[in-house]
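[Amino acid chain]
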Amino acid sequence: MPSFTPDQWLILLLTFILGVILGMALMASPKWKGRYRDEVRRREALEAENAGLRKDAREMDSLRNAAARDEERRRAEEAPPPL
């Protein structure tokens, strides 16, 4: 197994430190947190709207079926009796 030279160890250490500093800088930024929260709020609003639209669609289907049955019943009552 090849051993590392002191220069290679220094490069690895500097890369690690740079990664830690960059990671801390990105995690401390409130910009991504705000965007994430906005996206969550937008998604929840869309899901609520979709649930309302599905409820309205079910209600309209129910009313449409009831109206169709009522119309069929009226036509049957108004139709002359068969001979």
